Amino acid sequence: xxxxxxxxxxxxxxxxxxxxxxxxxxxxxxxxxxxxxxxxxxxxxxxxxxxxxxxxxxxxxxxxxxxxxxxxxxxxxxxxxxxxxxxxxxxxxxxxxxxxxxxxxxxxxxxxxxxxxxxxxxxxxxxxxxxxxxxxxxxxxxxxxxxxxxxxxxxxxxxxxxxxxxxxxxxxxxxxxxxxxxxxxxxxxxxxxxxxxxxxxxxxxxxxxxxxxxxxxxxxxxxxxxxxxxxxxxxxxxxxxxxxxxxxxxxxxxxxxxxxxxxxxxxxxxxxxxxxxxxxxxxxxxxxxxxxxxxxxxxxxxxxxxxxxxxxxxxxxxxxxxxxxxxxxxxxxxxxxxxxxxxxxxxxxxxxxxxxxxxxxxxxxxxxxxxxxxxxxxxxxxxxxxxxxxxxxxxxxxxxxxxxxxxxxxxxxxxxxxxxxxxxxxxxxxxxxxxxxxxxxxxxxxxxxxxxxxxxxxxxxxxxxxxxxxxxxxxxxxxxxxxxxxxxxxxxxxxxxxxxxxxxxxxxxxxxxxxxxxxxxxxxxxxxxxxxxxxxxxxxxxxxxxxxxxxxxxxxxxxxxxxxxxxxxxxxxxxxxxxxxxxxxxxxxxxxxxxxxxxxxxxxxxxxxxxxxxxxxxxxxxxxxxxxxxxxxxxxxxxxxxxxxxxxxxxxxxxxxxxxxxxxxxxxxxxxxxxxxxxxxxxxxxxxxxxxxxxxxxxxxxxxxxxxxxxxxxxxxxxxxxxxxxxxxxxxxxxxxxxxxxxxxxxxxxxxxxxxxxxxxxxxxxxxxxxxxxxxxxxxxxxxxxxxxxxxxxxxxxxxxxxxxxxxxxxxxxxxxxxxxxxxxxxxxxxxxxxxxxxxxxxxxxxxxxxxxxxxxxxx
Length: 860
Prior knowledge:
- The protein is α+β, with helices and mostly antiparallel strands.
- The chain is built from 29 helices and 32 strands.
- Strand 30 (742-746), helix 26 (752-757) and strand 31 form a beta-alpha-beta unit.
């Protein structure tokens, strides 16, 4: 049986140690091939063999490790069941749907009860599974409540609300406790006790000093009892989750961040409680216990809010999906949920509406805004036969389209999946962090114990030794280590998606930051990928000279260049005669001439006696004239005097263009040049790469002269010409042998071996036509400028990761020794546990906030 993958939203994780625990628990389950857990997305991606392990066992493993799984439950009424065999059949069909954890079908109620992961399954998929098994589904209101983003967002919102309530209680009780305690410690409320003592002496002049002090001390005990009353709700309500998670970790024979906080605050609280109950003298530290929990809660609340912003890009993509579509069924226009649109159906789209699915226009024209998918700001003109991307916006005209890709096959669905997988992937740089995180908490607990014993032996007393140990426990921050890499990757890949740059995984992103050489496939990458007319040159028949008023075409649709304005009636006649003769041809060069004539509004004559000679050209009778279009060899075979045209042909060929001579009734008229024209943005994109110190090479199967002509236009460093398709990967290896990190840029289909050989394979295309699975990075726009943007984004992301890791490591390396009291013997200064808790809370918020800066990264 083929392996399946399930994505499970995990609750309760707080640091890198939690990630390691969940992964370890999952990997222990027999049948689990791979498990990857991400702290930033709070997701576990599990690949497993369904023949060996069931999803319930995977869920149970996570819960046994002390964490929760976000699941949803659906009750679906099923029709058509008649016996127990039907029940088994429906259950079996449902359990095969990826993401279904359990399914129970009841014949008497004729309903299916399904527990599933909303990150992997949807109501539409469950319904389809039942229908494919041969049964019906009665759709009830609210069935879509199981959609992934809604369910998980609701769960995360409840979690955040719970944190907020606990934080409010922590501040409401902890702040007064702190203020009163500090006021007493600094002597700000001592006059009250002096006044009380004076009043006692006046009322009872015979009372001894010892008795009076005992009475005042009793009142001081009352203040300590007030401290206990204020600290207890914070300790056991606001700090409840830390105790629960610490206990679960203990049962699993491990430790995490919650263990450190629970131990640190509990030591201060229990020590103070023992002092108070025993009546022993000494300072109580209830405010320390309460403030540790409250400050950590502040950090965790801010961190949770900041983390929610790291997924803004993916939520924006999900939000692009239209809810309904207007389809033609039985000759009627019907509005249906977009999930119900079927392949091949005709969909009607009106101005201002979102295009519901991928497809092609069958009638009508419009301008479509594709910026939300490709990053291209200008609307794209669309007509019959043109492809459309679902979720893009129809700006102007109405049209009918045929649905080609629906559901999870659409370009948007693939983009969302690709971004989700990238955000959940683990960068190679994370491996060191994982190794540190796996031993971090036990090492910190050991350091805290050593700190306590060392200071105890040094003779500072148990109270002072305890304060040093508590500071060590609460200042250590495994959270910052765990969040440093995944938050940056989440924001970086999300920012890329907003600019039409899809990064397959974190490893690709890390390699892309080090690209030193880029190989560009010429056809369709540097050039438009289809031939177009570039020049029309007339021969002055009377003088036998090349017309000085030659017309040159811009690279865009054959428009006259600003420096040439002599496209006169003679040029029109030449182009019309050639296009009419070529109108029966299926050769790409002939089609380019016909397309140019039609673009200029010319009406073509029907050719007679059409004949095509392979490798030479065509001949036909057009309006009574015998027209030849082809090579010099064809012209000479027909006895046509070419005059000065061979020199013009030579010039055009030197520019990398294919020159076709045109003659009528045995007289040479001129030359039409056709070429695969360079994209307008190619030269600037190559210049941007070279400015960053990247070597740019062009790879093509064309002859060297043609290749060098194109290379001269765009300014590449190297030309790799006359390369056969099977030799492309060898050229990549050759550059890699020079010590370069090589990116290969191609169409993602014809260049598969070279893309695979390159350090970073980059597929470039437009919209739904680009093969997203074929490369490490996919550029949704057919624009080379996206390559430099991808490199800039990768470098910015890796720079952010390095800063995050530097902060996380240096924070712990410097502050743990300070908390242990290394400066105390020299200066008498010690780090208060309260300040330690504040520093710990700030460290995580700093890492997440630093990653969020990538949302504003300038990509050129």
